Amino acid sequence: MSYKLVCGDVLQFQETLKNMRNLDDSIVYALNISLPTESIKARTSSNPEKNCQELFEKLKTGYAEREKVIKECIQVSADNVKILKKQREEDMNDMNLEKQFKTEQRKLRVLKQEQGVEEIVRDRTFKAFNERCRQYYRADSF
Questions:
Q1: Are 27 and 128 in contact (CB under 8 A)?
Q2: What integer pLDDT is reported at residue 29 of this predicted model?
Q3: Strand positions, DSSP E, the chain
Q4: Cα 78–79–80 angle (5° rounding)?
Q5: Rounded to 5 degrees, what are φ and ψ at 101?
Q6: How far apart are CA 37 and CA 33, in angstroms?
Q7: Which residues of 70-80 are buried (b: 16+ CB within 10 A; e: fewer)?
Q8: Tens digit of pLDDT per residue, the chain (142 long)?
Q9: Residue 113 has what pLDDT?
Q10: Residue of 87, 109, 108, 111 whose CA lies nearest to 98
Q11: What gap in Å lies between CA 141 and CA 78, rounded to an integer?
């Protein structure tokens, strides 16, 4: 899945990340689908090793995409902060520039907080994945 870089609007950025985290948010459901119960296994030809491996690859791809988006947006915002800081130092009486600078600083803080949220989501998902798939597929980490 490809997502457009949405660094300008913090709310849109957070909404995009929320949409990108759908698989993580429904990890228990995804595991239940991938690993059928004993009674269902007897009636179907399920391959839990393959299912766990495919789920792991989907999760890993999602993490890489989100990490890329978060890092790129942090870089864009950090660059904007540097530019605005330099402009602000040149014209200290421009209140509009001061407001832009403070707004961009707040946005940068929110973007950096999303890195922490991403780490929590990743840890929670990895724990659930390992609890259910460890006997079928050994994943070191995401």
A1: yes
A2: 86
A3: none
A4: 90
A5: -60, -50
A6: 9
A7: beebbebbeeb
A8: 444 567 888 899 999 999 999 999 899 888 888 887 666 565 556 788 898 999 999 999 999 999 999 999 999 999 999 999 999 888 888 889 999 999 999 999 999 999 999 999 999 999 999 998 988 888 776 6
A9: 95
A10: 87
A11: 29
* DSSP character at residue 37: -
Hey, what are 142's tokens?
């995401």
Q: 9's torsion region: left (phi>0), alpha (psi -120 to 50) or beta?
A: beta
Residue 70 near residue 17 (C-beta atoms within 8 A): yes
Nearest to 105 by CA among 133, 127, 85: 85
C-alpha separations of 20 from 3, 59, 117 in Å? 8, 10, 13
Length of the chain: 142
DSSP string computed for 11-24: HHHHHHHHHHTHHH
Q: What residues have CB less than 8 Å from 53, skipping those under 6 apart? A: 137
The model's pTM: 0.81
Q: Which residue is associated with the tokens 């994943």?
A: 139
CA distance 48 to 137: 8
